[in-house]
């Protein structure tokens, strides 16, 4: 009994579980609705290297709920796969002169082995890889469906360009500091023709549905998406221009029109070239060379020195006829709003910085009580009293001011109220090899021709090593035999599109493919989507807040509008797990503070590592590996395991009656655990299981002894609770307690409500301030019952001694105060 060999236990149970196939989701039950379904999803990994501590944490957390749901009799879908296209594999292929598939599928096997051993209750029959032609066939099919709806299109525009990865990036892939999300290089701009998904078509709905997700999405994601989508109300205002068509600007503050002192157009917008006078044309040209180097993020940064050129032209302010010089600058973006603004330096900091740099006038039109921005250099944006603003003068409410001006502009025909979104369309094409080819053929006669459905997938041609080196154009362009095809429409010579899709396209719909991963006739089965969707809990990292989590929501809405699903949002609940750090800092090679998962598993075993990760903190908080104790977890697991041994060896001894005190602890623990699990307080569940182990040990050693049925009941409860985080130990306990495997298939213990009642409490009865009796009563006794009990007590009756009871003050369950007369 003495030694618990964790690795032997792992080897013993893994094949048993696989034979039992206990985690296969039951489609028939989901379709018939005979059992309530639960779809549990955790973000699938990139196959770069082996699993790391972050994976270990998220899988451990995720598995708690998946296993709990099964205990509660739900039909659980818990799939796993790999997001296996992408740059890491391609870069490795270039380094090692091989095909990206070599690296990809080798790593997938490594990760699969690690996951298997890690004992997560995945339904492996649904395993998928996004780089399999059977998968990307449907990615391509979806692309064409989107295109049919006008939701995928090509346009020429300035785009984000990563000079290191030599590919374009979506806005979502440029980090707040203007660097590439993948490699950290400074992102620049290029003018290119690229493919886009029309995410902006759903901007309003993507924004509005966030209100419904607010409570069930734990973490910062909802707010991050709200800001990213950036809904703002304002107006489009039209300004006449001398010798030119009028220009329209988007403004959130039409109420500040009287404070406009100049106009600015995006230097790289067509409009700038149209407005510039011949004298100023060269200055604009020179300036543009500078502008092309900066990213959007840089350009919008408030602390960036302002630069620009005067275009030589003037606009007319529609509310007061004032003449406003038109400038070009890079702090106005070409593809946001209309690419032109009215500048109100007193009330917009970027405009004020520009005005000060270029020596342009500043006019305050809202007096907020702060010092004048003209003197301080600090723009004011709050509520205040309108001044120098014609019909607004004296008003004090911003919303009212905005409303009045919009009415005025609309009556004049010079403006309209609008809703605007910061969100822009999703740039999806990439100039890299290891992705799904865009299934379009370009024909000189017919234009863009979709690849016919029966010719999907468009498979990647075999390229390797140096062929894949980034050159700024797609490597697929080098595979001439692949590129040159007959036009499906006219039969003439044509060429395949040589870009591939961003891997975020693959991951936008993988949770649909899990429903019928081997279906060769469709992307997924709509009936199964109806039965299983939406996902009941999604667990993943916050770094995907405005990337994957937004794209997946967009895809879901499109699929709904295509009639393939009947739900609006993919993830009913979302939980972002904290990070595993070490010594207060992010694990990194340069700090040398990395913790190797494989080594931890070798040293402590799967269960101890899993338990440590779940026990360390609430799932959304960071875990500092320097503060936790996997060896403590091992010791606890052995203590738990010994309970089962004690019960087993005491079998046949004279059984006692069932220790009520221990039974109460057991039932209370199970009862509370259910509530804690539903609210993701997994660490507390572990703590409570530890307490139950201690109580059971105490009962064995100094109480009722191991033969008492209460001890067996407690040990079984421990095994079931432990199986959520430490499945191997739990299985071993379950067997020692005389049960067939698997503990994962056991029923959640039924709680006896009678055992949840706390023991009695002592109520004190006072007469004229003197204690006359102590009563043992139920903690939930009613005031009336307590009063009756108190007045019937012999000691109390004697003390009253026939005198008048004037008043009885009852504070159930602890106190009765009797006031007697005369
Ligand atoms: C005048 C004004 C006065 C503005 C004021 C703000 C404050 P959000 O909320 O981000 O949508 N703007 C409009 N188009 C722009 C572009 N292409 N590039 C850079 N800035 C642009 O902000 C909208 C505001 O950002 C607009 O309202 C405009 O400046 C500026 F006291 O117009 B505002
Ligand atoms: Zn053609």
TrEMBL record:
Residues 367-390 are annotated as: Disordered. This is Leucine--tRNA ligase. Residues 13-220, 424-623 form the Aminoacyl-tRNA synthetase class Ia domain. Keywords: Aminoacyl-tRNA synthetase, ATP-binding, Cytoplasm, Ligase, Nucleotide-binding, Protein biosynthesis. A motif ('KMSKS' region) lies at residues 586-590. One of its GO terms (molecular function) is leucine-tRNA ligase activity. GO terms for cellular component: cytosol. InterPro entries: aa-tRNA-synth_I_CS, aa-tRNA-synth_Ia, Leu-tRNA-ligase, Leu_tRNA-synth_edit, M/V/L/I-tRNA-synth_anticd-bd, Rossmann-like_a/b/a_fold, tRNAsynth_Ia_anticodon-bd, Val/Leu/Ile-tRNA-synth_edit. Pfam families: Anticodon_1, tRNA-synt_1, tRNA-synt_1_2.
